Amino acid sequence: MAKTEFKAESKRLLDLMINSIYTHKEIFLREIISNASDATDKRYYNAMQKGETGLNRNELSIDVNIDKANRILTVTDHGCGMTEDDLHNNLGTIAKSGSLDFKTTQEKSDDIDIIGQFGVGFYSAFMVSKHVKVITRSEAADQGYIWESDGADGYTVTPCDKDTIGTEIIMTLKDNTADENYDEFLDTYHIHSLIKKYSDYIHYPIHLPMESTRIKEDSNPDNPEYETVMEVQHVNSMTPLWKKMPAQITEEEYTRFYREKYLDFEDPLLTIHTNTEGSATYTAMMYVPQRAPYDFYTKDFEKGLSLYASGVLIMDKCADLLPDHFAFVRGLVDSQDVSLNISREMLQHDRQLKLISTSLEKKIKSELLKLLKNDREKYEKLFESFGLQLKAGCHNDYGAHKEMLQDLLLFYSSTEKKMVTLAEYMERMKEDQTSIYYACGRTVEQIDLLPQMELFQEKGYEVLYLTHEIDEFAIKMMRDYKDKPYKSIADGDIDLESAEDKEAAAQKAEEHKDLLDFCVKALDGKVKEVKLSTRLKSHPVCLSTDGPLSLEMERVLQAMPNSNVPKMDRILEINANHPIFQTLSDLRTTDEEKAADLASVLYNQALLIEGLNIDDPVAYANAVCKLLSK
Fold first, then answer.
1. Secondary structure letter of residue 143 according to DSSP
2. Burial code of 136-172, b = ≥16 C-beta within 10 A, e = fewer?
3. Which of 117, 131, 585, 590 could cross-link with 172 by S-S, CB 3.0 to 4.6 Å?
4. How many Cα neighbours within 13 Å face the side chain of 476?
5. β-bridge partners, 67
6. 549-560 residue pLDDT tens
7. What ranges make up the beta strands (E) of 94-225?
8. Predicted pLDDT at 314
């Protein structure tokens, strides 16, 4: 029998198809079943065009069979089949797609869902097969044909008798090697798992013989005996849940799908189901879990939504469909419009993908805002788990996502004593208030005790508490909210005093200029300036900074590995109305050495109040003892 060479360029091209295009060998089964689905779609569509109504989708099954003894895996469909010319044109020419030809010659129809585009999926069979036989008969012919090939050397086509329309792909698997185990593709349960993973939503029934246990027919009912038999089972779900209209799906169905797919013992906090048509046409079903996965805030976490094309899984986690700030969202997208690469294992980065991603981002935000408005308790639980991710999103890319995320943020309020939004803070702002005030600390309780808080409490200004390391970095990058800048209560230029108070403070500072200069010298470069404070009430001292970094940001940065962040210029503020200031002034006159010790003690106390480390605890303890001694 004469062997026909492939019409494509050479053995090298086929070797590329088999060995380089696909990342995982298991993909071959997805490709073969997808081709079977396409062929069945064509037959069904052709019948509708001719007005033939006798075909039933459920009767057009795709049958998978395993012959372990002969190392044969067979996939049979009842689709349109192929003529002799089809075999030469489609299987004899690498990268020639009959499905694509069909797709481009038919008008778009909701009843036809052709997946194949490139004409290379069939050749993935050679990744696992040493010999492939195709037995087929076209619906347009009475004659059947057999196409056979061992790979790049060519193929043969011979006529045969075939009673039914459709195609059988008979794959004789390769022998095992030291590096590859091809026996797994002869294991019923492994094949079943691959069908469920990649082809569960093919809209034709997939049949596979599976082992099952039953009572023997002649068994004693009182003491039954069991036997294991092979029974053909329908193994795919066929109709994806997300293809139904949301109104037709119960909350229990959504929850069951989520828990089974993502192996979560808890119900999701939020379910988002959307069908979008237009410039970006897709269906998406997404979930927000109650808790962050154990590895969520590590570099090992992989974000992304599962990508399906017409019910066929293309990518398990498509990272390009989700922005980093919504990485906690789980779910899937099903679209025919995305441009796949030739292996269908990844996407080409095209305009359509960006449109879907942008649309999903807006949809997620709108659903989160809706949850925030309608179920505050549930949203606060969500924010407790994933608020850090939203704040990180505000900081990343130089604040580019500020408009998308700022209304989703929550901060603890000094006046409300609970978590509030920025919009809620704005509603309560005083008429003369020019900034949104915030304070940093490790806990709410620590911030409550900050000396700088007294002035804000006295004047009734609301302060947002930033208790996580990333908070102030995000605030700094966001810069403002609705044209109101953010301002730390520890900033050196806080301006809340009246003109009279400022003038009085300036006069007092001039009176004690020598004392303040003495303290700067005594602290020997630890502070840029010592000044009389206009904000302190009962506390003796506090620290502020001169520059863009706060003391809290400095602490966070210096705690990072290999950090070379220099210390910010610090300003020691002293309360002129506190008794300790008079003591300092008196010592300056009577005992400069003790006055220098007291200045050092006051500086170290200010560090402790801010939650910062003292440079020399021993020297601090000695200075305190020295001051206490007579």
1. -
2. bbbbebeebbbbbbebbeebebeeeebeebbbbbbbb
3. 131
4. 15
5. 72
6. 777 777 777 666
7. 129-137, 144-151, 154-160, 166-173, 206-215
8. 83
